[in-house]
Give the backbone structure.
Amino acid sequence: METTLWRIRPHTVPVWALACARCGASWLESTGRFRVNANGRRHDVWLIYRCPGCGARRKQPVHRRVRADAAEVPLDAYRRDDPVLAESVAFALAPGVPVAYAVERPPLPESGPLRVRIVQPRFCAVRWDRFLAAELGWSRRRVQAAWRARTLCVEPACRASAPVRDGQCFSVLELRCRPSPSPPRSG
Ligand SMILES: [Zn+2]
């Protein structure tokens, strides 16, 4: 069976799940900016977050007291607020925080089998059952039933509540929905 690539792209970066000390908003968003302080040869680096409610700012440590010549510390990139680095740091600071995403993929075939490999350079922390329900247009119950019946398989195997990871594949034996009588609606 041919394998199709589906690319999961985040719309944004993970938030910092920390309540704002000023207004009580329940999370802070990255500004994409760093703060770098030099103390002799040692440097502190923070990523700056902002409250979406009141604009209060708060720093989250990225490096503490690192030497300027340490290979893993791209000080120049921090100083110029390199956007790719800011994105990468925001993901590293909040592993497992769900992120809104889009899926770039070809249209689903009308019927027949499907095998897909996931490409997800940034971990978006979406559950498999929720992801498949949204992308296949199935109910969550149908996804879970197919999962149990193994007409829908994920490799390497995991639980339906586990997050989708880069490089995993899934296959569906038959995409077409069997017509089922819809329940009568009242009102
Ligand atoms: Zn606030």
Observations:
- The chain has a mean pLDDT of 91.
